[in-house]
Design brief:
Layout lengths: L4 H5 L5 H17 L7 H4 L1 H38 L9 E9 L8 E9 L5 E8 L9 E8 L2 E9 L5 E8 L8 E7 L9 E6 L1
Antiparallel strand pairs: 1-2, 1-8, 2-3, 3-6, 4-5, 4-7, 7-8
Length: 201
């Protein structure tokens, strides 16, 4: 409903002032009603909260990925430059394992692989970080996988520090497998549990 001009301004205006206000009144009527306010202007806090949550999630994901990449690089570099003592072996390949959704935050590992000896055995040095110390006789196991499933164990270990280093000697032919996984095993369980860390061969 358009308000009546006379009701708005009254009758006690001078003619020049009345004409000016009448022109403005007619322009406002011609322009029509204002559009509906968008929800962000009705309640600006709602949009700010949504944007803040999105950007916080995105920033946290970026930081987590960057931390994992730096940790992975540190594992490879740490092995190549570290003091390996008198029983060192020639490293022919280094594999970096990354955490699965079941892994603790920041969990990472690397495997330094040596050449096969005359008997067909080859050595590996495994470095793991950010796996929790287990209770009740539970332990971790490194497996080789076939079609993504753990099939043969390379060795089991426990951790007591933020970073743990273990060494295994095995005789499997790597070309018969497609990847590596680390699982958490309970004392009663012999079959592979769900992977915490994984990498292709």
């Amino acid at each position: 409903m358009t308000p009546d001009f006379e009701e708005l301004v009254g009758k006690d205006l001078g003619s020049a002032e009345r004409e000016r206000l009448l022109r403005a009144h007619n322009l406002l009527i011609a322009a029509g009603p204002l559009p509906e306010l968008p929800p962000s202007l009705v309640d600006p806090r709602a949009t700010r909260d949504e944007e803040s949550t999105f950007f916080n999630r995105r920033r946290n994901a970026t930081v987590a990925l960057l931390a994992a990449a730096l940790a992975a690089a540190a594992f490879g570099i740490g092995y190549l430059t570290g003091d390996r003592g008198g029983d060192a072996f020639a490293v022919r390949k280094t594999v970096v394992l990354h955490g699965t959704p079941a892994a603790p935050a920041g969990a990472v590992a690397s495997i330094a692989l040596g050449d096969r000896d005359d008997a067909g055995n080859w050595q590996m040095l495994v470095r793991l970080s950010n796996l929790p110390e287990l209770k009740g006789g539970a332990y971790y196991t490194l497996w080789l996988t076939r079609h993504g499933r753990p099939v043969v164990p390379c060795g089991s270990f426990v951790v007591a520090e933020k970073t743990t280093q273990v060494r295994f000697t095995v005789s499997y032919a790597l070309d018969r497998f497609d990847g590596w996984v680390v699982t958490e095993q309970s004392r009663e369980r012999r079959e592979p549990a769900r992977p915490l860390l994984t990498a292709p061969i």
